[in-house]
Amino acid sequence: MPIEHSTSLSLVVLVMIAAIPQGSSADLCAGADYKALCRSVVGRAKTPYAAAEATVKRLISETKKANLSAARLPKKDYSQTCATLYNNAISDLETSLKAAENTLIQQLASTGLYISTLVN
């Protein structure tokens, strides 16, 4: 009997995965004000989560570049405050990525638990 439940649970999970809408990056950027910019950041992402992840990674990269560029300015123009703000922004973006990933994992685990209670 447990094997039968395991098989049916696998089928339910496969059906759920197949039912998730698979858009293209063009679809994800359809409502954007700056479609070209959206597409350049989103790239080939197929899901909103992947697009958000790509966007945050791009923000981290661009913020690091801006920090390096600003560090080349004369010290009177580039204070410790600027360095702190850039580093805080990078840290906050990296924290956001980890939080989003953990939230997604928790949601998937909760869904799996819920499905297993329905099957049993």
From TrEMBL:
<feature type="signal peptide">
    <location>
        <begin position="1"/>
        <end position="26"/>
    </location>
</feature>
<dbReference type="InterPro" id="IPR035513">
    <property type="entry name" value="Invertase/methylesterase_inhib"/>
</dbReference>
<protein>
    <recommendedName>
        <fullName>Pectinesterase inhibitor domain-containing protein</fullName>
    </recommendedName>
</protein>
<keyword id="KW-0732">Signal</keyword>
